[in-house]
Amino acid sequence: MNPLTDELWSPYIVGVGIGILVWLGFLLSNKAIGCSTAYARTFGMLEKAVRGKKVEEKPYYKKFIPEIDWEWMLVLGIVVGAFLSSIISGIFRVEMVPLVWEETIGSSYIIRFVGALIGGILLGFGARMAGGCTSGHGISGTIQLALSSWLAFIFFFIGGILTAFLIYGGF
Amino acid sequence: MGEEFYKDKRKQLLIGFLIGVVFGFLLDRGGATDFNIIVNQLLLKDFTVLKIIFSAIITGMIGVHLITKYLSPELQPKPCMWKPIIIGGLIFGVGFAVLGLCPGTASGAMGTGAVHAVFGVIGMLVGAGMFASVYPYLMEFMEESDLGEVTLPELLGINKWIMITIISIILIGVMYFIERIGL
């Protein structure tokens, strides 16, 4: 057994590792790990490229300046890290339609892509409305014992569980 | 680590990237970049995701509170605007189930070759952009329910180490129960 090529590690080891990364974020950067602001900033950068500087006047982009910041680099790092992991373990493969989706909804690429797009829109909107995502609220925020984050974490899963049973639960 | 170090933009961007690389690696080895594992968690058939999050919370809680007690970084709890958190949280949850990934794990899934996750990422960009556009109209509604940057120990009026102990015991208890029933 070589841990470097094992496809899956114990979830407890992975969790402890992620907890230590949160320590490092505080220690090395005075920052709490999160992902969803990177999406808002990126959209702002694209909007700025199309519509020009006036985009910076939007109140939201005054709070979250459309630029490459620490969190943006973190999200880029996630893409690279997951790529490296899947190449080393050998599970990297082109996936058009995931298995559970195929079994319950069907094997059409188009329907899955449209579904993913709609799911993404809801995630992006919901995360910015709630002020964070599974990382920023669900891990970093709960770790800080923030009331906001525990509340968000609970509602992420209430919404997720109910919807998953409706779509994939076979009703 | 002093103020100077935190203000060194190039070093900080590099650190953010490197933490992200390890984060992405860990998410993938945990199975969290896989649509099937996340959806099966939401269907309560596979508890991998909850085991990852709970062990991260326990480890993180202890370390982060020690760091912020003895070293310069300070806690940065997000403000508790309960109305947008509940509504936004539920919207997020619906998207979480439909995409079967979240903002962090979708970018990871893209790295492992999931083409459908690319559409999820495009959707998240659009959704975040839509929120930025309607934000001026929602600002008042959001802020009227703001309870401030309150933490659980402040709310309950107890010592934070007691809170950390209580939460750790509950989370370990839940994980123990899940293992006992074979999930």
Fold and architecture overview:
The complex is a heterodimer of chains A (171) and B (183). Chain A has a domain at 1-94. Chain A is 69% helix and 0% strand. Chain A has 8 helices and no strands. Chain A has helices at 11-29, 36-51, 59-63, 70-89, 99-104, 109-130, 136-143, 147-168. By secondary structure, chain B is mostly helical. Chain B has one domain (3-180). Chain B contains 9 helices and no strands. Chain B has helices at residues 3-7, 9-30, 35-42, 48-70, 82-99, 103-111, 115-143, 152-156, 160-180. Classes of the chains: A mainly alpha (171), B mainly alpha (183).
Summarize the structure in short:
Chain A is an all-alpha fold and 171 residues long. Chain A has 8 helices and no strands. Chain A has helices at residues 11-29, 36-51, 59-63, 70-89, 99-104, 109-130, 136-143, 147-168.
Helices and strands, with pairings:
The complex is a heterodimer of chains A (171) and B (183).
Chain A: H1 11-29, H2 36-51, H3 59-63, H4 70-89, H5 99-104, H6 109-130, H7 136-143, H8 147-168
Chain B: H1 3-7, H2 9-30, H3 35-42, H4 48-70, H5 82-99, H6 103-111, H7 115-143, H8 152-156, H9 160-180
The largest inter-chain interface, given as chain pair and residues per side, is:
A-B, 128 and 127 residues
Q: How many DSSP helices of chain B? A: 9
For the CA atoms, what is the radius of gyration of chain B?
19 Å
Separation, N- and C-terminal Cα atoms of chain A: 42 Å
Percent helix of chain B? over 70%
For the sheet with most strands of chain B, the description reads: none
Q: What fraction of the residues of chain A are assigned to beta strands by DSSP?
A: under 5%
Rg of chain A, Å, rounded = 18 Å
Calculate the terminal CA-CA distance of chain B, rounded to whole Å: 42 Å
Estimated share of beta-strand residues of chain B: under 5%
The gross shape of chain A turns out to be: globular
Total tally of structural domains of chain B:
1
Give the integer mean of the pLDDT values of chain A. Answer: 96
Main beta-sheet strand count, sense and barrel state of chain A: none
